[in-house]
DNA sequence: CGCCGGTTTGATACTAATCAAGTTAAGTGG
DNA sequence: CCACTTAACTTGATTAGTATCAAACCGGCG
C-alpha cells in the first residue's frame, strides 16, 4: 500500500461517478450529488502493488473499494495448499463482500491496483440511503454470478486447450480500454502460475498449450506477457 | 406442469412469508401484510414433475418462482452437448434471473417441484416497492455467488473422490428438513448422470467413487438413491 | 417374461500431472 | 560492463488419474 490520500476525484471514477464512461453495468448517476459528495469525502485513494493482498479469506472486512485501475484476483485455497482463482475484477467493479462479517475469498492485486476505499459503515450508509446505488451493486453481483457459472462450465467440462483459449478470450474482452469489442493485442494480467490456478491446470500444461497456439499461429507471444491475436474468430473456435 | 391454482397459502411459504421457519437467509417479514397480500393474489402455485424444464438458456424470462419444495438444477451446455450443472436450488430460493431479458441457464426440476410463481411485472413491482424484500433477494444472490465460488474450487482442484465426497456433504447439509445440522440419511436428488455433470466427471467415475466409499464403509447405499453416512466427520475428511 | 433405463464393473486409451532439465530475461554486485 | 543469481517460463520423459469403450447387472414395468 503505497499512497493514501483523500480522493475527491472520486467524482471522476466509474463506481461513484455522475457521468460514467463505462457502459458495462449501466445505470450510473446512481447517487445524488449530495450522496456523492458525502461518499467522496469519506473515501481514500489507495494503491496496491502487484502481489499485495487486499483481503484474506475468513478475515474481517475492513472496507470496500471501487476499482479504478488494475486487476484484482479472488482466490480460495484448500488446507493442503491447492489454490483456485474464483474471480477476476476489473474497473469499475466494487471489491469486498457486502453484508458479511468476513471475507469469503482472498483478494490480491494481480497488477498494480488503484482503489477508492470507503469504510464498511460508510458503504452501509450509502446502500441504505440510495436504492439506485444499491441496485447498481446488485446488478454487478448478478453479473458476477453469471460469470462464475460460465467459468464453472470451463472448469468442469473443457479440455486444457479449450480452457487456455477461453482464458485468452476472457482477457481479450476485458483488456478493452472502454470499447465494447475485444482487443487483438494485450498484456496478460496474470502469471502462468495464476493462469493455471484460474483454469485448474498446472503451470506446465498452461505453458504447453500457449506454445501450441503460438506454433499454430493462433496467437503471438512476446516477452511472455504480451499476446497478439491475428484472428479472434479462430481463437474463439478453440474455446469449445 | 400438473396442477395450477392461485395460492393464498403463499402466506405459509418461505420466501413470501411473515414468520418464516427457515433461518438460512434471515430477515423474513420483508413484506408488509399489504404487499404480501398483493403478491399472494398474483401468484400461482405450479407443480413440475422431475425432469421438466422451468426455463431454458437464452430464452425470455416468463416469471419468477419461490421454491416451496423440491430441488431445481441449473445447467449450461456447450454446442457439442457437454453439460455442466452450475447450481442447485432448494426451498426457499427464488428461481429466475432478475433484471435480465433472458435466462442465463437452463433450469430443470431435479425432483418433483412445487413453486409459487409470480409474473415478471409483479416481481418487479414488489422489488420496487419493498426494499426489504429486495434486500433479502440480494442476500440470496450473494450467497449463491459464494456457493458458486466454493464449487469452482471443487471443479478445478479436487480429485474425483474428493468431488464425490464434497457432493455428498453438500446434499447432506441441504437435505436437512429445517434443522441446521446435516442429515446422516437422505435420498440423492440427482441421478448419477446429473452428479457427473455437477462434478465435471463421467457417470462411470462417479459410480466407481461411490462404490469405493461404500466398500470403505464411509457411506451406505440402498436402492441407488438412498445414502446413509455413519460418520459425517469421516466423510468430511474425504472432501479435501 | 422380456424389455429398458439407470447403474455397476472391467479393460484400455489418453489427457494432463508430475518429475526433471533447460532457457530466457531481469536484476545485482563486483 | 560482465559474471552471477534468481524468478518465470519452456520443454521433455514418465506416470497417474479419468475418460472411453464395452459388457454385465438390477429393478421396474408393460
Unreliable sequence segments of chain A: 1-13, 17-29
Mean pLDDT of chain A: 86
Percentage beta strand of chain A: 15-25%
Largest interface (CB within 8 Å) is between: A-B, 39 and 39 residues
CATH class of the largest domain in chain A: Mainly Beta
Indicate the percent of residues in helices of chain A.
25-40%
Quick one: how many beta strands of chain A? 12
What report would you give on this structure?
2 copies of one chain form a homodimer. By secondary structure, chain A is α+β, with helices and mostly antiparallel strands. Chain A folds into 2 domains: 4-151, Sandwich (Jelly Rolls); 158-237, Arc Repressor Mutant, subunit A (Orthogonal Bundle). The first copy, chain A, is built from 7 helices and 12 strands. The longest helix of chain A has 27 residues, at 131-157. Chain A is globular. The termini of chain A are far apart. Residues 1-13 and 17-29 of chain A have low confidence and may be disordered. Chain A binds chain B through residues 74, 76, 78-80, 82-84, 86-87, 97-100, 104-105, 131, 134, 138-139, 141-142, 144-146, 148-153, 155-158, 197, 199-200, 240, and chain B through 74, 76, 78-80, 82-84, 86-87, 97-100, 104-105, 131, 134, 138-139, 141-142, 144-146, 148-153, 155-158, 197, 199-200, 240. Chain A binds a DNA duplex (30 and 30 nucleotides) through helix 6.
